[in-house]
């Protein structure tokens, strides 16, 4: 990992996190129990998952983070700040960890899995709470290009449902969302 790649990952994460934060801050108090496009989840569960990925990436939960049940906005912001802090610290960002993709640095894990996960769940939260579901076009293209060769492998772990068929001329975001097993 180079400092440049870490800063690029931090920039990408920061951009997607800003869009996610906008959606999180707009969820009305009674919206946290709204059904999500993720089967069996409500809006609050999306936050719970994203906060949980912080622990997955770093091996420990965000310190002093509020409970997702009591303060989903605060829990998300604490997780976001923890990830950005890790990316800003070369000793943490460069630490090697075991992942589903083999041994990777924390920065690589966030670049490979964290940014994309946050992007897709921005769409989920937007849909669950009736907000604009438009995603960053560059990240949509990057993620879709990255995921396509792993189609079969992705579905084996149960993290993604079966691909939803969409017209050939569907826009890239619709194709990505459908590829992840969600109905656009």
Automatic annotation (TrEMBL):
Pfam families in the cross-refs: MDMPI_N
Domain of life: Bacteria
Annotated Mycothiol-dependent maleylpyruvate isomerase metal-binding domain residues: 14-89
InterPro entries assigned to the protein according to its UniProt record, in alphabetical order: CHP03086, DinB/YfiT-like, Maleyloyr_isom, MDMPI_metal-binding
Name this polypeptide is given: TIGR03086 family metal-binding protein
Species of provenance: Sporichthya brevicatena
